[in-house]
Amino acid sequence: MSDTDTETDAHTPSLRTPIVAVLGHVDHGKTSLLDKVRGSAVIEGEAGAITQHIGATAVPLEVISEIAGDLVEPDDFDLPGLLFIDTPGHHSFTTLRSRGGALADIAILVVDVNDGFQPQTREALEILQRSETPFIVAANKVDTVPGWNANEDTPIQSTYDQQSERVQGAVDTALYEIIGQLSEAGFSADLYWRVQNFQRNVGVVPVSAMTGEGVPDLLAVMMGLSQRYMKAEMEIDVAGPGVGTVLEVKEEKGFGTTIDTVLYDGTIRADDRLVVGGTNDPIVTDVRALLQPRPLAEIRTESRFERVDEVSAASGIKIAAPDLGDAMAGAPVRVVRDRPVEDVIAEVRAELADIAVDTADEGVVVKADTLGSLEAMADALADAEVPIVRAEVGDVAPRDVSVASTADDANERVILGFNVDVLDDAERRAEIDDVRLFTDDVIYQLIEGYERFVEERERAQQ
Ligand code: GDP
């Protein structure tokens, strides 16, 4: 089944699938939850009913309704299903952008009931808050509460009601801890069955990505939230020029540099001209191939990918085209079709300018894996009153070291890299030039590491 099965009249507004991102601290169960949703969809659905995209999985309404049973009556909905961004963690949440068209429409924040809020949970919350993305909390691993009696066939509220008083007490303690922490962060939250308005209040759904308990409830809450409050945002012009966001920039054998893209409006065709946000100027290029994953059985000696002629929102697609070397994760992708290319370049430029980081004449060098994470780093550094001289997406390269090495103040002969690698040459160069490199995959730890360094230096000077 392809994305283009549904024939649509030209320029008739259609409702697209809401895009869902899964975020949370490492090991709290993001991957397991995505696997469970996919697994249940495969079991419940007709073969091929769910579509594996690049970087995303589409679960149609009928399949959601099979999984969720009475909780989702298909007749109550006209949204076509949910599209889950597959790469959990930093890649999905840091490409959520605060301005200029967000990538995800809804998010699931996964919190381990045993572990509660952790650094990446807080970081994810801040990003959700800034991007005003509605979200639901999956209080995961509820099966690990001692004495928990699993019942995969009832809604999680009934399963919870069936537990002994002691177990309920233990679950309550864990859940109210999470609800309390959400409230400290400025969100009014409650157990999902007590929430009336999911736009105003954050619903907390106890789940187990292992047993699958609570997954039907989670899907039902997301469908309800989207249908009730977000339908207007799902109206798109399917036949119009495609608009999307780069998820990842990847070398692909036989295709050169490709961009994994989530398309959230319109259509991309195999003969389209595109404008893509790059580290320097917007890139103007022509699609060489639109690629989707081939079913496993067909791969053998063939390429892992199958060429398609056209793809419509919302879906994930790999785009092969010349000159994509400078494309940035988190940057916009726009189809030119039937309008002046200058207009589209201007649109992409405006969108990039909106997420650009203000730099000063002096300060530290910042590198990050996506535009969204760069923006999050810049915000955190502004809060810590650390000026930035240069901020870019990409690994730490020798030219970053050159820039950092020009600083007079040793506190600014520094590169902070979030979720990026340091190229070998850059490491050698930094040693020679006496430039300090800090890297981490948690923003606040990265900044703390830097602040410790500054404090120690200042203490040593006294
Ligand atoms: P991620 O880093 O957030 O993607 O976390 P993973 O999905 O990799 O899960 C981390 C670990 O927790 C793995 O060993 C999983 O098997 C385990 N895990 C995840 N969800 C559950 C759950 O609901 N119950 C139990 N008992 N273990 C879980």
Automatic annotation (TrEMBL):
Asked whether the keyword Cell membrane is assigned, the reply is: no
> Which residues are GTP-binding?
24-31, 86-90, 140-143
Kindly indicate where the leader peptide sits in this chain. Answer: none
Top-rank taxon of the source lineage equals: Archaea
Please report the stretch or stretches of sequence annotated as the Tr-type G domain: 15-230
Drop me one GO molecular function for this one: GTP binding
Entry keywords, A to Z:
GTP-binding, Initiation factor, Nucleotide-binding, Protein biosynthesis
Q: What does this protein do?
A: Function in general translation initiation by promoting the binding of the formylmethionine-tRNA to ribosomes. Seems to function along with eIF-2.
What family is it from?
Belongs to the TRAFAC class translation factor GTPase superfamily. Classic translation factor GTPase family. IF-2 subfamily.
- The protein here is known as Probable translation initiation factor IF-2
Show the taxonomic lineage.
Archaea, Methanobacteriati, Methanobacteriota, Stenosarchaea group, Halobacteria
Name of the gene encoding the protein in the UniProt record: infB
